[in-house]
Amino acid sequence: LFISDPTGIFYSTVILTETLFVFLLLLTICVYMRYFDGHSGWFFLSGALLGIVTLVRPTALVVLPVLVFILWLYSSGRLRHSIICACMITAGFFLVVFPWMARNKIYFDSWALTAVATTQWFQQTVTLYYAYTHNISHTEAYEILRTRLMEINPHKSDAGTLRNTPYMGQIVREFLLEDPFGYAYFHAIKTLPFFFSDGLRDIARRMGYVDANQPNVGNLILAHDVQGLWDAFVHNRLSSVLLLFGGGLWLLVTVGMIGSVRGFHALSQREASVLTVCLFVVFATMLIAGGPNASARYRFSVSPFIFIAAVYGFDTFWKKCFLALKRTIKFKPTFFLN
Hints:
Elements: H1 6-11, H2 17-34, H3 40-56, H4 63-73, H5 79-108, H6 116-134, H7 138-152, H8 165-176, H9 180-190, H10 192-196, H11 200-206, H12 217-222, H13 226-234, H14 237-259, H15 269-289, H16 296-300, H17 303-337
Helix pairs in contact: 2-3, 3-5, 4-5, 4-15, 6-7, 6-8, 14-17, 15-17
C-alpha cells in the first residue's frame, strides 16, 4: 500500500526530509516494538533514534509521549520496569537533541527545539481562521496579527525565529481562546484532506494537467455553499474524477483504520500495542499537521502507520465475513434435510 501511494512516488524524485523521516521513524518503532519486553537498553536506543528523527522533522516530537504512554498502558502490572524504560527512552532522546537545544539557548535565549510549529500557527493557521471568521483576505488578516505582534514584540520583527516565537505564541493563544469551539469546528473541517486528500489533483496541478487555481472544497463546506460545491465538481471534470477516485480509495483506507478498533479484543498484546502505537502516532500528527495546512504531503510522513492500522481493520472485517459465511454453510445442510 505504501509503495503504491501516488504522493510517495511523485515526491520520491525530489530531495525532501520525508523520505529519511519515514525510514528513521519506522526504524524507531521497529526497535521499540521488537524489544518491547526486553532490556531497558533497547528503549534507550529507540529514544536516541527518535531524537535523530526529531532533528530531521520536528513533528516527531509528538511521538515521545506516545511511546511513554504505550509503555504505561501495556505495563502488565510491572510499573517499576515501565518507569525505568520510560526514563531510558527520554534519556536517549534528550542525549541527541540537547546539543541543538543548547545551541538555541546560546543564540536565541530559548530552549525550544524549533520555531517552525509556532511560526506556522501564527502565519497560516490562526491567520486563515481570522480571515474566515471576519470574511477578509489572508493578507488583511495577517496584517492585523502582525500589527498586534509589533505592539508586544520588543524585537519588532515577524521573522520565524526563536526570538519571536514566544510573542507569536501569545497572539495565537489570544485569538484561539476567544472562540475555542469555533476553531475546533474550523480545524476539523480543514483536517479532512489529511485523511481524504488523494494527492492526485496536486500532482496533476504541478504537472499542468489541471488549472493551478483549484476550488477550495474545505472553504466551500465551511461556507455551506452547496451550489459552489456543485459548480466545482461540474466545471472541473478531470479534477473531480481524480478526487472521486483517489479520495474514494483513501476513504476506504480511513474506514479500515477506524474499523481496526473493533478488532482490538481479538488481538494479542503485541499486536494490540502495535495498533495502538500506529493510531496514536496518526492522531497526534493530525493535531499539529491538520487544520488549514493539511495535505496529502503532510500525511505522507505517517501514511505507513495509517496503512498498518487499515490492514488490521480489513483483517477484522474479513474474519467476520468468513465466520458469517462459515455459519451459513453449516446451517444450509440442516435446513435442506428438514
